[in-house]
Write a structure and sequence with these properties.
heterodimer, A: about 400 residues, TIM Barrel, 11 strands, globular, B: about 260 residues, alpha/beta, two-stranded antiparallel ribbon, 9 strands, about 30% helix, about 15% strand, monooxygenase activity (chain A), Luciferase-like_dom (chain A), LLM class flavin-dependent oxidoreductase (chain A), oxidoreductase activity, acting on paired donors, with incorporation or reduction of molecular oxygen (chain A)
């Protein structure tokens, strides 16, 4: 099993939620104290360094126009981590490719980070969440098709070394694709795709990319991974090893169960602060019109909405016990957390990567560091005894 | 999940190009009015269509992707829509056609008029989008995709009693139709937003008498914008409808129909 420390690098000092409609898209950035934001970045980067020093890997993602995630340019932070970490692999999960206009630029960024890190980069792609079609002006229609065209163009750009090729597709046009520099790893860094539904798992399997999913719980994740495994069988490819499957959960390890649960409660800020106005949660075209119509007819969310990456609509109202029970949160003492992960591993039919959101909201630096260190020292060896270590 | 039943080759009207549209025909006058709706629900235009049908043979298609009309994959731009209707005009036996474009349909009507089909006798634009007049910082058209539904109704109607109100208690088919129309609007009008930059100049090609009708309380695209658009079309007349929002054909159906009938002479 490989473990990846992850934080969305929130700006957690928000006004009373009653004073704004949406933490995404419209909350003015005047809320930010630049000095405080810079200090937060110092500590978030330090936490990734701690993870590296403890033998864990690191993961970054990006979001736009939101206080829940100050990382608006994942390749930039990955470039920083390339120079301030030593051994960790660096996973970007992901580049929101349907929300970015220039896939060739993404290929260049990935190649550069791969060189800066001497080949420690894993390249992940996601479609991009619906809240951000406004921030990026991306048309929320046929975004999955746009994502796949971008992935095809980016991977081809990373793997082509004999001069320019031509790309005139449905969404992107480049007549001279020949990126300099080329990536360090050959033929390219490992490719991941994050997705949430079984139907979208099939093309990931067909391409031979790693699949990951966020906060889907054990049941949903099992279905997703099974769809991937089924697709491989359908097209006559050999079964996938654990290394092809990743899962992102919230995680906090304490000295005792009680301390672990205290830390975990602070992580729930991530679920509970995602107050998003309906018009940004359901842009036309992002989902089938019938799904949107049903949502528009449903109750107006008065409180926070669940993170869009999770297929579980009631995430925000679930108790800590429920979240643990469903495999969305791993929390407690090291022994308890190891047991929860072992159970999850068995429930989903095996996986090789745990993406651990070990910091969110107001969880302080010292607490975050203690959680990471305890996980690395006591949970990792215990889980590896059961699942076997996976070398990347 | 509930979806709308779309028309097919049997139940729709053949517009050529393999396109079959859910189409309403009304009236039996000698003169044809091709009425191109916007993103409102088809039923909202019922009174207006009846009023117009007193003078015209009115043909009202739901555009591909809107309402109950299917959309072929190749049809992705307002230009594609205009081509479908130009082909239909050319294949029809009609002459002296009055083209009426409502809101988004006004954009399509502008695209048709700059193609100068011989059958086109006059053009009527009602609170039309399609041409941006302001600069980069100006929002010519309210961002409907960033506006909560309750706020949208206040932009669409001077009297919000014309809207669906609480969507939770609205008819399911009405919300489905609205949602499908919104999706089509995203497809055709997301970027550039509800306009085509080349139309700003191309509309100088329009060579038929043109009337612009505008709701005095349009919250999506202002009457001032309408006056500015009229100023760019040679000889165009501008009429404001008091007490109407973005969809005056819904709120003041008879008045709008009367203006058109008078204009057509």
């Amino acid at each position: 099993m490989q473990y990846w420390h992850f934080s969305e690098c929130a700006y957690p000092d928000l006004p009373d939620p009653e004073t704004y409609d949406s933490v995404r898209v419209t909350l003015p950035n005047g809320v930010i104290d630049p000095e405080r934001a810079a200090g937060l970045w110092d500590r978030y980067i330090r936490e990734w360094q701690v993870a590296d020093e403890c033998g864990l890997n690191v993961m970054v993602n990006e979001h736009h126009s939101t206080a829940t995630c100050m990382n608006s340019a994942a390749p930039l932070i990955a470039g920083v981590l390339a120079r301030v970490t030593t051994n960790a692999r660096i996973l970007i999960l992901g580049n929101p490719v349907a929300n970015r206009n220039d896939p060739v630029r993404i290929a260049e960024e990935m190649a550069l980070v791969d060189l800066l890190s001497h080949g420690r980069l894993d390249v992940g792609f996601v479609r991009g969440v619906q809240y951000e079609v406004g921030a990026t002006n991306s048309k929320p229609f046929r975004m999955t098709e746009r994502m796949w065209e971008a992935v095809e163009l980016i991977t081809r750009a990373m793997r082509t070394h004999d001069g320019p090729f031509n790309w005139e597709g449905e969404f992107f046009h480049h007549r001279q694709v020949n990126i300099w520099p080329r990536p360090y790893q050959q033929p390219s860094p490992p490719i991941w795709i994050a997705t949430g539904t079984p139907a979208s798992a099939a093309p990931v399997a067909a391409h031979g990319y790693k699949i990951a999913t966020f906060l889907g719980g054990a049941k949903g994740t099992r279905k997703l991974f099974q769809a991937y495994r089924d697709r491989l069988e359908e097209i006559g490819k050999p079964p996938a090893g654990d290394d092809m499957f990743g899962y992102a959960a919230l995680a906090y390890t304490g000295r005792t169960d009680s301390e672990g649960l205290d830390g975990a409660r602070k992580l729930l800020w991530y679920l509970q602060s995602n107050k998003v106005a309906k018009q940004f949660t359901f842009p036309p075209g992002y989902m089938p019109y019938s799904v949107r119509a049903a949502a528009l007819r449903g109750p107006q969310p008065s409180g926070p909405g669940a993170p869009a990456v999770s297929p579980l609509p009631d995430l925000t109202s679930m108790s800590v016990d429920d979240l643990i029970d469903q495999g969305i949160l791993f929390a407690g003492s090291a022994k308890t957390v190891a047991g929860q992960i072992e159970r999850f591993y068995n429930e989903v039919g095996g996986l090789g990567h745990l993406l651990l959101m070990g910091q969110a909201g107001h969880l302080g630096h010292e607490e975050t560091v203690r959680g990471i260190e305890r996980f690395a020292a006591d949970v990792v060896p215990a889980v590896d005894r059961v699942t076997g270590g996976v070398t990347v | 999940m509930q979806t709308l039943d779309l028309v097919d080759a049997d139940s729709g009207v053949d517009f050529g190009n393999g396109v079959y549209l859910d189409t309403r025909a009304a009236g039996s006058g000698d003169r044809v009015a091709l009425l191109l709706p916007g993103a409102e629900r088809a039923a909202e235009n019922a009174t207006f269509v009846e009023s117009l049908a007193e003078e015209f043979s009115v043909v009202v298609p739901s555009h591909p992707g809107f309402g109950r009309s299917a959309r072929p994959d190749w049809c992705t731009t307002v230009g594609d829509l205009a081509d479908i209707y130009v082909d239909w005009l050319e294949r029809s036996e009609a002459s002296d056609v009055t083209l009426v474009g409502l809101q988004f349909g006004g954009w399509i009507a502008l695209e048709i008029a700059v193609r100068r089909p011989a059958q086109l006798a006059r053009l009527v634009l009602v609170d039309a989008v399609g041409v941006k007049l302001g600069g980069p910082l100006d929002r010519d058209f309210a961002d409907i995709f960033a506006t909560p539904y309750a706020g949208l109704e206040r932009l669409y109607y001077a009297d919000t009693a014309f809207g669906l109100g609480d969507l939770g208690s609205a008819r399911e088919d009405d919300v489905l139709e609205m949602a499908r129309n919104d999706e089509a609007l995203v497809l055709y009008g997301w970027e550039p937003y509800l306009h085509d930059p080349r139309l700003g100049r191309a509309i100088e090609r329009i060579d038929v008498p043109t009337l612009l009708i505008w709701g005095s309380h349009d919250g999506i695209v202002s009457p001032d914008h309408g006056r500015g658009l009229a100023a760019k079309i040679a000889g165009a007349r501008f009429e404001e409808i008091d007490g109407a929002g973005h969809r005056p054909q819904v709120e003041r159906a008879e008045d709008v129909a009367r203006s058109i009938t008078t204009f057509a002479g």
